Structure formats: C-alpha cells, structure tokens
Amino acid sequence: MSDNPALLLPPYGGFLGILTDRDAAGALLFRMPFGYRVVGRPGFLHGGAIAGLLEIAAVGTLRDALADDPGASVKPITVTVDFMRGGRERDTFAAALITRLGARIANVEAFAWQDDRDKPIAAARMNLMVRRG
Amino acid sequence: MSDALPAWPQQLDPQMIARLVAGLGHSGALGTRFIGHGADWAELAIDYREDLIGDAESGVLASGPIVALMDIATSLSVWIKRGAFRPQATLDLRIDYLRAATPGRTVIGRGECYRLTRRVAFVRGQAHDGDPADPIAHVTGTFMTTDEG
User: ipTM of this model?
Assistant: First the structure.
C-alpha cells in the first residue's frame, strides 16, 4: 500500500482533475470533479473522460498493490469499457478490484458511479502486463 | 451510456466537423484536430503533451487520451456514414494497446463505421503515431442512438 496515493496518479490524472482518497478499509477511491475539460455533449460527461477515470483507477489500484516493489511497472494490454448510464454534471467516483495478480499479467475491474455506488455509470475490464523490479 | 459530441440537426460538412472537434469540452481540452474523412470514416489527431502523460518515467502518453480520440473518431464516422447527426451513446469500446506511443509524436486515429442499423452502429479503428502500418492501438465498439425513430 502506498503512503501517498496521490503519487499513484500520472500527469494525465492531473489533466482530468482526479483526486485520490482511501476509505475506512484502506481501499483506494478516485474522484473526478465535474468541469469543462470532461464535458462531452453539453450537460453530460464525455465517454473518453469516464474511460480515462476507469483506467486511472485500475492502474492506480494495481500500482498500489505493487507498492512494496518499487521497481515494478505496469502496462495496459487491453481495456473494455461498458457505458451503462449517462454521466451528469457532478462528481464521478471510481474504484477498482484486482481479480488476479500474477507474475506477468494482472486482471483488474473498475467501476465508476455518481450518486449511488450500486448504480454504476460505466465499468471497465483491463488486462495489464506486470514487470517486477 | 456516455454521450459523445453534441447532435446538431444540420447538414454534415467537414468544416463543421472540424469546429465540432476542436472547440468542445473534453475533445477541445485534449487538443483534438480533424484530419479528414471518407464515406464511412473520420481521422483525427492529438499532439503529444506533457499533461497527457500516463507514465512519468517513460514519458509515454496515457491510454485515456487514445480511448477518447478513438471514441470521437468512431462516433464521427457513424454520423458521416448516416449522413446526419443523431444523438448517440457509446455502448462499449474495447481497445487493444499494440505498443506504446512514441513520446513526442502526434497520435492519429481513424475510426470506421462498418455496419449501421436504425439503432445500433458497429465501429472499428486504429491509431498510429506516424506509420499506419505500425499501429499503436486497435479499437472495436458499438453506439446506440438515443432519440426516437
């Protein structure tokens, strides 16, 4: 687990305005405030921004799990995003679940929601290459 | 469902597409540029920028801007093939990252609508950073119209 989850964010995370936090159980939570940069059709989030948030949640959560190995690196191989609901003009949250962390490949699922965690607006499945340090 | 660019009920023309792509919200913030289009495809570009980096050590662009680029290019290809703007939402989008984009290079994405029905559009596309024969990403996806009809 990383002491400073903000360090898990790449420059692109700053571009999207994403902030990180941990819940009571220590799980990472990612928040993307609404703003002009993430708008698609007026009044709605852009799908690309939602996909970006999901990827940052997935990669950040994986890097957090690898924090004990400072030489480790991860690289996305595939991502599949399902869009379930339109994102509206408010904060969007995301969290990710590592379903398998192997020696070379990690499988990660990420979910994004706004008002209700049980009503996701989008979900992503990612396969990532892991290189241990 | 994600709502892509706005649906304006005007006649489609390339200059309007260029304005649409360059000026708005997320696609404007990414600096998306319109390159060209055919009967069923659209090509867009984003220039390399430090605030779009996904891996600070290598300087490689994040995958997110490439997803966004391909989402926009493929959704434009649907409107071009349809010959009209109709509001649509991305149902799903899958990206295969074939290799890392080379730091410093402009990324060019071509989206193609290869099958269009009344409600659903099937799209595919590729992104490259200079050589179309050496792509960096491959994408497939579906869109659904959100208006009646």
Answer: 0.89
